[in-house]
Here is the input.
Amino acid sequence: MKCKLCEREAYLDFCGYHSEAKKRLESSYQVWSEAYGFVGWTDYLNEIVRNPDTGRWVVEVARLLASSHDGDSG
Here is the structure.
């Protein structure tokens, strides 16, 4: 099975790199919500994508998750 975002071998949906990025996005969401007040899931993902310091794999996962939630908040 191939990763949804690249051609690497995947376990379930993502390769190791994109799986780790997704895990970190999900775990950081709580921290962002506490720091900035309530932040919707899609708003959080969009902020992550806009941050120039965000790594490539995280941006790729965040874009995919944001598009799949269509404005959903977490």
